[in-house]
Design a protein that fits this description.
CATH architecture of the largest domain: 2-Layer Sandwich
Distance between the termini: 52 Å
Strand content: 15-25%
Number of helices: 12
CATH superfamily of the largest domain: Dihydrodipicolinate Reductase, domain 2
Number of strands: 14
Structural class: alpha/beta
Number of domains: 2
Shape: globular
Bound molecules: nicotinamide-adenine-dinucleotide
């Protein structure tokens, strides 16, 4: 019989969605064995809902429990690094919500700990999982799309004062950033997943929508390593919420669906330049395996890595890449300059991007 991994989840907000979308549909692969939250009412409500008998307010208890294989960290951002390091040191496999850490120095510290741990670490980037993004990835990787030209990534979401009625949100010390860190990070990950690494960044960031410390509007201009140009726009003040990725290659233009929280779902608009390209795409996609959406797809892919010992489907390198973009955007905004990637240890914002 194949191994069923026992999961302990810390944080029962988005942690509940990990259960519903990620673990329950794969009940042959995972058992949610324990839940942890500082808020006892919330802990009991979620544990009752999913019949989880082991519940605790102490994350230390889960870390030292030999019965738990995977620690899934769903706490507010500022505690991620500490818990990830603790879980890796305990030899656990680790799933961690975004952002993985609060600085590039911390990502590098985590990556070192990962090398020395028997556990696998998978940061969450569930927007990569869906039929639309999977088809685009397959076409691009096959070479059929040709030379990449230009892209836009729009995160037009809406957050009002009631959303910030949660003590960790809207503050540098606890949210670690604004729309860039908490919201647009998903579409930006999807962009680099499809277009590869970034070479240069010029950006502006402002707080225009809510009375918060962190930014809620961003505009950035990117030069990708493959020569393509990309524009990122994000706001938390949109009347209509959409996420949209639009990429023009030599032979194919891709446009994601506009669902704010699942732009990876199919169908995407995939527009070939000719009938010949259309036929080649149809042939390529004819035998595409089905792919789960969001946490469902990501947890399924993680299981493959856990049983085979392969690298996780989303890696700490991916997390570093996303936080390098965040660091570059803040630095460009502060200095009104073009920032060249990669960002190394001698960069002024390597140890913190916060003001
Ligand atoms: N991937 C996504 O689509 C997505 C969506 C929402 C949130 N998130 C991320 O998930 C994380 C949590 O966000 P949320 O919206 O669920 O927040 P939340 O405030 O709703 O829930 C966080 C929970 O963690 C608990 N908690 C805090 N510190 C703890 C600790 N040390 N030990 C145990 N429990 C602790 C809190 O009591 C709270 O119940 C954030 O990093 C956020 O960016 C990701």
């Amino acid at each position: 019989m194949s191994k069923r991994f026992k999961v302990g989840i810390i944080g029962c907000g988005i942690g509940r969605s990990h259960i519903v979308e990620g673990y329950l549909p794969h009940a042959d692969k995972y058992e949610v064995a324990a839940l942890c939250d500082l808020d006892e009412t919330r802990l009991n409500a979620v544990a009752d809902e999913f019949f989880v008998s082991r519940r605790t307010r102490s994350s230390d208890e889960l870390m030292s429990d030999p019965d738990i294989d995977i620690i899934d960290i769903c706490t507010p951002p500022a505690v991620h690094t500490k818990l990830v390091l603790q879980a890796l040191a305990a030899g656990k496999h680790v799933v961690c919500e975004k952002p993985l850490t609060g600085s590039l120095a911390e990502v590098d510290q985590v990556r070192l700990a990962e090398k020395n741990s028997k556990g696998l670490l998978m940061p969450i980037f569930q927007y990569r999982y869906g039929e639309g993004v999977a088809q685009a990835k397959r076409i691009i990787d096959s070479g059929l799309a040709g030379k990449p030209y230009a892209a836009t990534a729009e995160t037009f979401w809406r957050r009002t004062a009631d959303y910030y009625d949660n003590p960790w949100r809207g503050r540098w010390a606890t949210e670690l950033g604004g729309v860039l860190m908490t919201h647009a990070i998903h579409l930006h990950d999807m962009l680099t997943y499809l277009l590869g690494p970034i070479e240069r960044v010029f950006a502006r960031a402002e707080t225009r929508v809510n009375a918060i410390e962190v930014e809620d509007c961003v505009s950035a201009s990117l030069l990708m390593q493959n020569g393509a140009l990309a524009s990122l726009t994000a706001t938390l003040g949109a009347a209509e919420e959409i996420s949209r990725l639009h990429i023009a290659f030599e032979h194919v233009t891709f446009e994601s669906n506009h669902e704010a929280y699942s732009p990876g779902d199919g169908p995407w608009r995939i527009v070939p330049v000719s009938d010949e390209v259309r036929q080649a795409i149809d042939a390529l996609l004819a035998d595409s395996p089905p792919v789960g959406r969001r946490f469902n797809g990501q947890m399924e892919a993680f299981y493959g890595a856990l049983v085979s010992g392969a690298a996780p489907p989303v890696t700490s390198e991916d997390a570093r890449r996303s936080l390098e973009l965040v660091t570059a955007i803040y630095h460009s905004n502060d200095t009104h300059s073009d920032v060249v990637l990669p960002i190394a240890e001698d960069h002024p914002k390597y140890h913190s991007w916060r003001p």
